[in-house]
Structure formats: structure tokens, C-alpha cells
Amino acid sequence: MSEQLYKKILLPTDGSKYSDISEKHALSIAATNNAEIIALSVIENSFSIGLPDTETISEVNRLLKDENEKNLKKVERLRDECGVDVKITTMVKEGSPARVILETIDEEDIDLVVMGSSGKSGIDKFLMGSVAEKVVKSAKCSVLIVH
């Protein structure tokens, strides 16, 4: 009998092609280890600085939240298509993606993070450094970066 390496896997998802690929890896690892997946979608809220009014901000937030929830539903659909019996808990949080991911690792006692190497925006990577890179440098658990 093999030892269960992972009990809780964090799967940050943003709807990018790299995120889609990481979902397959996370599901496979979770199924093999009888682990739970926590699928996390982060609403980047720094955009709201300088927007004219709170109505505009709340409308943009609502649209972003809808998009994030679609990304999370995609993970559940993929699980069902693959026919694996994996528990998935979904979360939508607001903030800086790297910071929120690192906080969630601690809050949820995560054993493994499975995430894509790049997100939706290339300019963000240039300006802020890659979210994946920040998570790898600071996470207190194993991190699998999927290309």
C-alpha cells in the first residue's frame, strides 16, 4: 500500500490555457492520492484605483466574479468528464493573486499547489513578476508548475 503524499491540493485557476492544463494534472494527482482539490480563483482588485465611481467598480467586480465562477465550474466539469472521484471545494477571493494563493496555502493547510506557468496577461508578468514565480519562492509546500 502506498503512502498518501498529498491530502489537500490547491489549484489556482484563471481560465488561461496553462491553467486548463494544470487542472488535468491536479485531478490526476488528487485521484491517485485520494486527495481533495481546493480550486481557487482570485479577483485581482488593484484595477479599481482611479475608476470614477463605485457603481462602475461594483459592475466590474460583478463581471470579474462571474468570470471566475465560470473558471471554477470548468474544473468540476473536467472532473466529471474524466470520471474521477475527487472532492473539489471552490473559492473566489479578492486581492493580489500571489498573496491570496500564499495565504490560502496557510489557511487551508495545503500539501501541494498545482498551477500554470503563466496567466492570461503577459504584461502583468513583465511588470510585476510572475505569480507562479512568487508562489514558488514563498510557498511552504511543494509547488508543481505546469507548462
Output mean pLDDT: 87
CATH class: Alpha Beta
Strand order across the largest sheet: 3-2-1-4-5
Structurally, the number of domains stands at 1
Tertiary shape: globular
Unreliable spans are: none
> So, the CATH homologous superfamily?
HUPs
What class, by secondary structure content?
Answer: alpha/beta
Largest sheet: 5 strands, parallel
User: How many whole angstroms does the radius of gyration measure?
Assistant: 15 Å
Strand residue content: 15-25%
Query: Any idea what the CATH architecture is?
Result: 3-Layer(aba) Sandwich
**Topology, number of strands:** 5
What does this structure look like?
The chain has 147 residues and is α/β, with parallel strands linked by helices. The chain has one domain: 3-Layer(aba) Sandwich (Rossmann fold), CATH 3.40.50. It has five helices and five strands. It has a five-stranded parallel β-sheet, with helices on both faces. Helix 2 links the parallel strand 2 and strand 3. Helix 3 packs parallel to helix 5. The radius of gyration is 15 Å and the shape is globular. The mean pLDDT is 87.
In short:
With 147 residues, the protein is of the alpha/beta class.
Task: Throw out a few tags for this protein.
5 helices; alpha/beta; 147 residues; Rossmann fold; single chain; 20% strand
Task: Chart the SSEs and their pairings.
Blueprint: E1 8-12, H1 17-33, E2 36-43, H2 54-82, E3 88-94, H3 97-108, E4 112-116, H4 122-128, H5 131-138, E5 142-146
Parallel strand pairs: 1-2, 1-4, 2-3, 4-5
